Amino acid sequence: EVVLPTGEIVTFGGKLIKNAMGLDLLHLMIGSEGTLGVITKAVFRLIPKSPYSCTLVASFNERLEAMKVAPLLAPQMIIPLAGEYIDHDLCEISAKYLGTEWPAKKGNAHIFYICMGETEDEVYSQAEAIAKICEENGAIDVLMAETRAEQDNILKIRGEIASAQKAEDSVGDFLDICVPPVKLIELMERILEIEKKYDTRIPVTGHSVDGNLHPTPLKELADRGLLEKVKEDIYKETIRLGGVISGEHGLGTIRLHNTPLWPDPKIW
C-alpha cells in the first residue's frame, strides 16, 4: 500500500501469487525509496527454512586465489544459499571483539559458503562439490561446520566485522561496490593496485556469489588527505567493469556527490 504525492492511496501487488493486470509498478515503488510515494503497508511471503544446512570455510593464501572460485560455481549449477569473502585479519578482529575464535587458522583470505537443502545427502553433496572446486583452485584448507553452534559462530563473526572495525575506530568509510560476478577477480586486482598506489591497506569483505564487495579504506587516508581520492579511484574502476557504487546499501546523502561518475546521470 502506497500513498502517492497527490494523497491518493494505491495498492500494488498484495496476497496474489500471480497478477498480470495493468503496469507492474511494485518494484518501481520499492526501488524509489520513498521518493515516488510513501509505503504504508507491506505484505510478505514467508518461505519455510530448509531443515538441513552446513557451512564450508575455504582458506587461501591470497585474495585473488579466493576470488577465482566465485564465478566457477554457477556454470556447474551449484548455487549455495550464500558465499561470503573475508580477509583473515578481519575475522580475527571480529572474533576478538566477540570473545570467541575464528575456526580457520590457515591462509590470509577466506570464502565461506552456506549450503541448505531438504535432505542431508543434498546438503553434503553440494558442500563436497564446492570443496572440490576450492581445492582444485588453490585452497590450502577447507573446514566444514556441521553443528548449529559452529555455524552460528562463523555467521556471528562475519556479521559483527563492521562493529569490530568501528570499535577500533580505524575505518574511514564502508563502501558497497558491485560488479558482475565474472568481473570480481578484476575488481580485486584493481583494489590491490590502488593499495599499492597510495601505500595503504584496504580491508575487504563481501558477497562473492553476488559480485558485491565492501572495501573499507582506513582513516589514516583521511589524515593524509587521500580518502576521497581513494574512494573515487575504487568507484571509477567499479564502473569501468560494468558495476555500480552501491549494490545493497543505497546512496543516501553520503554517496550523492559520486553519482556523476555513473555513465548515465539522467537516472539520478
Description:
The chain is globular. The two termini are 25 Å apart. 37% of the residues lie in helices and 17% in strands. It folds into three domains: 1-45, no CATH class; 52-163, Alpha-Beta Plaits (2-Layer Sandwich); 170-267, 2-Layer Sandwich (Alpha-Beta Plaits), CATH 3.30.70.2740. With 268 residues, the chain is α+β, with helices and mostly antiparallel strands. Helix 2 (63-73) runs antiparallel to helix 7 (184-198). The strands form two sheets. It has a seven-stranded antiparallel beta sheet, with helices on both faces. Strands 2-1-3 form a three-stranded antiparallel beta sheet, with no helix packed on it.
CATH topology of the largest domain: Alpha-Beta Plaits
CATH class of the largest domain: Alpha Beta
Count of folded domains: 3
Low-confidence stretches: none
Order of helices and strands: EEHEEHEHEHEHHEHEEHH
- Distinct helical segment count: 9
By helix and strand content, what is the structural category? alpha+beta
- Rounded mean pLDDT is 90
How much of the polypeptide forms β-strand, as a percent range? 15-25%
CATH architecture of the largest domain: 2-Layer Sandwich
Major sheet description: 7 strands, antiparallel
In whole angstroms, the N-to-C terminal distance is 25 Å
Spatial strand order of the main sheet: 7-4-6-5-9-10-8
What's the count of strands? Answer: 10
Helix content: 25-40%
Rounded to an integer in angstroms, the radius of gyration calculated over CA atoms is 21 Å
Globally, the shape reads globular
Domain FAD-binding PCMH-type: 1-49
GO molecular function: catalytic activity; FAD binding
Protein name: FAD-binding PCMH-type domain-containing protein
InterPro entries: FAD-bd_oxidored_4_C (IPR004113), FAD-bd_PCMH (IPR016166), FAD-bd_PCMH_sub2 (IPR016169), FAD-linked_Oxase-like_C (IPR016164), FAD-linked_OxidoTrans_Type4 (IPR051914)
